[in-house]
Amino acid sequence: MRAWMMAAPLILAGCTGSYEPKPLTDKQAAQLDKALAGKVAGEKVSCINREPQTNLTVISNTVLLYRVNKRLVYKNDLIGSCNGLTAGDTMIVRSFGSQYCRGDFTTTANLQIGITTGSCALGDFTPYRTPPAAK
To answer: Which has more confidence, 17 or 104?
Structure first.
């Protein structure tokens, strides 16, 4: 038996570890807190509509915000880290249909030099809504 065939189970075992994202920096945490101030988290959903056009805000290489309107923002904790997002690289989402969904494959690219800089997948979307005003 070839040596690589004997080593294959060990190599695959090394790929089964759990992913732990880096914690947000103080600046990133403050940006996230400001964006979600006054809003209340709802139940996570697997997909969101791409229309109306959502406004994407990069918090870190692992956290994105999709602003639908003033009252609704979705927070997405990426599966993996899309290196380059915080450096201003372009995010390319491969999705099918009219929705972004958990598991949609995402890459980041530096368009100036034409290279891919990272890859990850979209996670669940947590809606944050402004509660109705008390009467």
So the answer is: 104
Domains in the chain: boundaries: 24-31+38-129
Question: Torsions phi, psi of 45, nearest 5?
Answer: -125, 155
Structure tokens at 101: 């969904």
pLDDT at residue 109 in the model? 93
Alpha helices in the chain (DSSP H): 3-14, 26-36
Q: What is the pLDDT of residues 105-123, one digit of tens each?
A: 999 999 999 999 999 999 9
Q: How many residues are there in the chain? A: 135
What strands, in cross-sheet order, belong to the sheet with 90-94? 90-94, 105-110, 115-121
pTM for the structure as a whole: 0.79
Q: Contact 37/128 with Cβ under 8 angstroms?
A: no
